[in-house]
Design a protein that fits this description.
Blueprint (H helix, E strand, L loop, with lengths): L6 H6 L7 E6 L14 H4 L3 H9 L1 E6 L9 H8 L11 H8 L9 E10 L5 E3 L7 H11 L8 E8 L2 E7 L30 H18 L7 E9 L6 H5 L3 E4 L3 H9 L11 H11 L5 E6 L1 H7 L3 H19 L5 E5 L16 E7 L12 H4 L5 E4 L3 H8 L9
Parallel strand pairs: 1-9, 1-10, 2-12, 8-9
Antiparallel strand pairs: 2-11, 3-4, 3-6, 3-7, 5-6, 10-11
The protein binds zinc ion.
């Protein structure tokens, strides 16, 4: 099943039309409880979602491809109408977006771990004993002072032993090997240039590592660094330009704000809780054609493997749905970015419930929210990249293709 590449849609998108809201419950999809046979969403008491699916057209979506478990980054890229394989976001880039770092096109971002090495340079602790975050902040500030000719570099703390390194300058590339050997008793893996194009980046990173070694050499625990997910940022074409719709992201977590910013959405102030999410949506409702709203708890409770907590999070999400419905967007899509079944305590590849409410929706017979109910809906199973084109179509924002 081929998803929408967006090319046709780009060519026929029009500037006027209805208001669209994409409401995403992270990790929404689940798996049946072994005793009741009900998923978290089916077990939850969801009057607002039930009313919404009754008035809409329903189905399930596949975030990336069948069988592929996505991270939240690519899953959101797909929801925003971008091919998540073509516009792959590397781990270093995601990590930098996750701390609200203002990445520029061509920047190379690296996830770094502080580690402990012995006198022979062999790793004895890959996480430097999980140094406190304050220590990470202190060391990142020192490393941030390193200067390399012709390049800008930024070191930022993340949490505990984790930090981010960003290189800015001409001719830098991503896609280098990780230096974290994923085991102890061996030294970090040297950086290798697979081709001529990578040599400059390898030299720069090695120069940084050499300077860092000097700075860290007397640290009792964090006396070494490893690198992972070395990735360069190539910005996707902007959402407002591609789809001719002004767009804003209302989200609490930096990573989602970062991914939205990456595709050119405006990102108003950070929301601390559901009330603030609703407040921000309401404040920005008139100013934008497309509003993306992100709810996190359905994913974190699934990741915790806590079925009951995910049921409760789904009920909390249902109350948010009621408040968004009351704002009466012309097109409302409620879905998840991927499944996070509490039975697996992790993201999964399972298709995700989706409902579209719009004046032009071909309303189906589904009356209850939940995976098994919505599977019989009028949308069937679609790819995530088809969702945005459908929203534009229902908003009356797509002209006819051809005469
Ligand atoms: Zn997610």
């Amino acid at each position: 099943m081929r998803g929408n590449s967006g090319r046709v849609v780009e060519g026929i998108a029009e500037e006027s039309g209805g208001k669209m809201v994409l409401l995403v419950a992270d990790g929404l999809g689940g798996l049946p409880h072994p005793e009741t046979g009900l998923t978290e969403g089916e077990a939850a008491d969801t009057p607002n979602l039930d009313a919404l699916v009754t008035a809409g057209v329903n189905g399930l979506h596949i975030p990336i491809e069948r069988g592929v478990t996505p991270g939240s980054g690519p899953a959101h890229i797909a929801l925003f109408g971008y091919d998540p394989v073509r516009y792959e976001i590397g781990r270093g880039v995601l990590e930098a977006l996750g701390i609200d770092f203002d990445l520029r096109d061509g920047d190379v971002a690296v996830r770094m771990n502080f580690a402990t090495v012995d006198g022979e340079g062999r790793i004895t602790d890959r996480r430097a004993g999980r140094i406190p975050t304050e220590k990470c902040v202190e060391l990142a500030e020192k490393l941030n002072e390193i200067k390399l000719p012709g390049l800008e570099l930024f070191v930022r703390p993340v949490k505990e032993h984790r930090a981010v390194l960003v290189f800015r300058g001409p001719g830098l590339v991503g896609g280098l090997n990780d230096t974290d050997p994923q085991e102890t008793g061996v030294p970090p893996v040297p950086l290798r240039a697979e081709d001529k194009g990578q040599e400059k980046t390898v030299e720069a990173l090695n120069a940084f590592l050499g300077a860092a070694r000097e700075i860290l050499k007397d640290e009792p625990r964090a006396n070494a660094l490893t690198m992972r997910g070395i990735a360069s940022l190539s910005k996707p074409p902007s959402f407002p330009t591609r789809f001719k719709a002004g767009a804003a992201a209302i989200a609490s977590y930096p990573m989602y704000r970062g991914v939205a910013r990456l595709v050119g959405m405006d990102v108003p102030a950070q929301a601390k809780d559901t009330d603030e999410l609703v407040g921000l949506l309401s404040d920005n409702f008139d100013a934008y054609d497309f509003l993306f709203v992100h709810f996190k708890k359905t994913d974190s409770t699934g990741e915790d493997g806590d079925y009951e907590a995910k049921v409760a999070a789904t009920e909390e999400f249902d109350r948010l749905v009621g408040r968004v419905v009351a704002m009466e967007p012309d097109v409302l899509v409620v879905t998840g970015d991927h499944s996070t079944p509490s039975a697996l305590a992790s993201h999964s590849w399972h298709p995700v419930p989706i409902t579209i409410r719009a004046g032009s929706a071909r309303v189906d017979a589904v009356r209850r929210f939940g995976e098994s109910h919505m599977l019989s809906g009028g949308l069937g199973i679609i790819k995530a990249t088809d969702i945005l084109p459908l929203m534009l179509a229902h908003a009356g924002r797509l002209a006819k293709f051809g005469a």
